[in-house]
């Protein structure tokens, strides 16, 4: 397991962590400057932030700072109610894919969607199995484009508390079942199996830390499926289902233990900090938040 | 599948559903009167409500109304930090067991506990695996007493959002693994396996509705392990992790589909309504809530 205590070369900042400090949007290009100034080598920006800053301007800033993208947030939202909404989702995902390529992201992260309409408070139906089937179908269609562009797709299982409205893939096992169905392992000629690397998972500890099958499924995933590793912490109490994530070290997730499991499979990428925190971290100075991320990355990840 | 549309003979009211209406505790004995007056045949009271009303007075009221108890809420909270807290949990669970016997409950429901201290906001450690081991140990110890008293223990898997502070058994599969470990199936002489009925699960749809393995695990459970069936609904959005449960029909849970799965295994018990709803149902007249439960039981369960 890598030693993170001496530097922060494997720290990545998901830019949602500092997206709206004290009520005002922190512009993406300023976030990139602030990260680069601190020796942070990687980020994961959100599409709306990129759109606000301009795709080309963002790509230039990333290149000029020498930043890497541990992932691009996000594609997905595959579930639909009719042919038009299905096509709209496909078109939007292709655009996300193209943006990820322009920015040189390591992968496009997929938050797959829940029951259609549920995020707006009006679920079109209660058939979770059909929503899950739509997700598999949507990823299958996008995977063709992703292979062409050599942009890996990372399915992010979301915590079961988001099953209705954000993502109906809720465990690592479920995500890996989709991976194996759409991108089957093939014999590699040495008696083992190889995976293409085109489709894998984003392991966000906030979503998966509780799972009794976690260790088993990380092992199942193996190196080629482990495309991203996200950290924050689970607070007790948690006061909001979406925006009360904790800074690493402030909650109950045994992050080093899980990082050890992932690294035992050969994962050697960035540890991406993604914290939605309306009442705490979004109320502070963005630079202070970044400094805290660096310190906690060294001490608690 | 039983037809619930014509009457409410299989409706049970978990008394937390109407425990504090408009800010004031509704005394348990009044709740029992109100249920009986509506032809509701079963309830599931909480220990603190019983303690406030008096155990003997509660038992008398239950008998005089001819009410059944679909379950008794609750035992559990097995996790500990030292020998004294372990012993205190054991003693308290034995008392719960005795109360369940006095009240003639169908089972004692177990909410197993999370990381010790987490419910008070100060987790003693982050070792979820050790908490889970303590839970298995605690249930094993209690099971001896439960067998003597012929009081079934129903492990209630809680939603993963409660893994830290309330229950580290978070899927039906995990609960059934504990059941099979502590109360192993034995050959019944006809080529099938029998389960003793001493240990099983409480399937609360709020906690398990999202689980991709739900149908498979309900089938695995079979009739002897299916000791209780709890309903409410999952709202979109959900504004509070604990006290924003919905009335059946107001959310996204496909209750009839899951009831069909449970009944296909031979479950023929009560459908117990358990709704914690600080901002909505607890702000209404208790009689109105009970009437709504009856109507929704017929139409949406």
Characterise this structure.
The structure is a homodimer of 301-residue chains. With 301 residues, the first copy, chain A, is an alpha/beta fold. The first copy, chain A, folds into 2 domains: 1-69 and 233-264 and 273-301, TIM Barrel (Alpha-Beta Barrel), CATH 3.20.20; 71-231, Alpha-Beta Barrel (TIM Barrel). Chain A is 41% helix and 15% strand. The first copy, chain A, is built from 10 helices and 13 strands. Chain A has helices spanning 28-37, 47-53, 55-65, 83-103, 128-149, 172-182, 205-208, 214-225, 255-264, 286-300; strands spanning 11-14, 20-21, 24-25, 42-44, 68-69, 72-76, 108-111, 153-155, 186-187, 193-194, 199-204, 226-231, 271-273. In chain A, strands 5-4-1-13-12-11-8-7-6 form a 9-stranded parallel beta sheet. Chain A has a two-stranded antiparallel sheet with strand order 2-3. In chain A, a hairpin with a 2-residue loop joins strand 2 (20-21) and strand 3. In chain A, helix 4 (83-103) packs parallel to helix 5 (128-149). Chain A starts with 10 loop residues before the first strand and ends with a helix. The mean pLDDT of chain A is 97. The A-B interface holds A 115, 118-119, 121, 123, 126-128, 132, 159-161, 163-165, 168, 170-171, 173-174, 209-212, 234, 236-239, 241, 251-254 and B 115, 118-119, 121, 123, 126-128, 132, 159-161, 163-165, 168, 170-171, 173-174, 209-212, 234, 236-239, 241, 251-254, 257.
